[in-house]
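Our consortium's second objective concerns turning raw sequence data into structural hypotheses that experimental partners can test. To show how far this objective has progressed, the report includes one record in full. It was chosen at random from the queue rather than selected for favorable results. The single chain below, 185 residues long, was entered without modification.
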Amino acid sequence: MKWIFLFLGAILLYFIYIYNKLVSLKAAIDAAWSDINVQLKRRLDLIPALVKTVQGYKDYEASTLKQIVEARNKALSAKSVHESIEANQKLSKALHSLFALAENYPELKANQNFLQLQEELSQIEETIANARRYYNAVVRDYNAKIESFPDIIIAKRFHFEPKEYFELEEQEQAQANKMPEIKFD
């Protein structure tokens, strides 16, 4: 009889361990998302200065700036992680378009304020990419844990739901982060 209580006690302790591990991973996901959110906010704060700088040039592409402003506003009003991810993906695409267009305007490319903002945004994008990799790693561990046996029993009982990855949406964005191909003729 004593062994049965010891066995049941060990099982109970193991389930408590699983629950605590799930709570810990969920907290790590929240902290990782918070880190991403801080960087996204820094990026959003730079957008008005960037738009104002570009508007100073008479030949700028108004539609591109409009896309940037709309994407920024959508990112600011995002209520969930999913909405924030979608809005920031659109903002990244719009910013990429703006920097590609800047190639057509030598005086804009030479503008010191524009260059500084572009450099700051580039650094923030790199920080976001690093934070995104960490966030996705924690989400991967959490999602694997809530789907593994016997952890799935505790996860279902206490409503631990799978979390969404923060991934690059479009292939062209993934390509933008790759090193250029060098060909020797």
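The partners drew two points from this record. Confidence is low (pLDDT under 50) at residues 171-185. The chain is about 80% helix and 0% strand. Both points have been shared with the crystallography group to help prioritize constructs.
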